[in-house]
Task: structure prediction
Amino acid sequence: MPRLFTALEIPRNAAMSLSLLRGGLPGARWIDVENYHITLRFIGDVDWRTANEIIDGLDRIERPEFQLQLTGTGAFGSKKPHSVWAGVSNNPDMYALQAEIERICQRLGLPPDPRKFTPHVTLARLRASRVDDVVEYLSGRGNFITAPFIVPRFVLLSSRDSVGGGPYLTEEVFPLHEGRSSLASSEEHPASSVW
Result:
């Protein structure tokens, strides 16, 4: 059974902006542009029956579309950095969606996710990168920001055994519902033109 996780996709325009952050950091293994995403909940290796129960639960989620923006950069692993990432703007609807997915997973007997939800897009995995090199890389890219975009759906992705970073396969797609609050934003930034 493949390793499963729920995620938000990154639209093409934002992914192209992220791709400009590639390079300039020794020891970095850069994530391919088509594999950029925001992980909502890592599920892991489950049997087919559990996977189908998770899909049924996720399919019942009724949440509105929301707007996000990618902004800033950072690294995980302060003394021994292991990855660099782009940040994600704060949106209560994203946090509510993530919390509902977490509740569904726990109701189905999965252990709680031990990590605090920190929305981000992983740009690169690091191998033996020096802290000074990471600090220098980040200092030149701290003002990174994309145009806002509408999130019309979330997905269930799978990954095969690898060192991380893809390739990922979309197993299921779960649409979010157009809400009144996002209509004005979607007119300014039509979702159909950026995917």
Observations:
- Residues 181-195 have pLDDT under 50 and may be disordered.
- Strands lie at 3-9, 28-30, 37-45, 66-68, 70-76, 83-88, 120-126, 149-151, 153-159, 168-175.
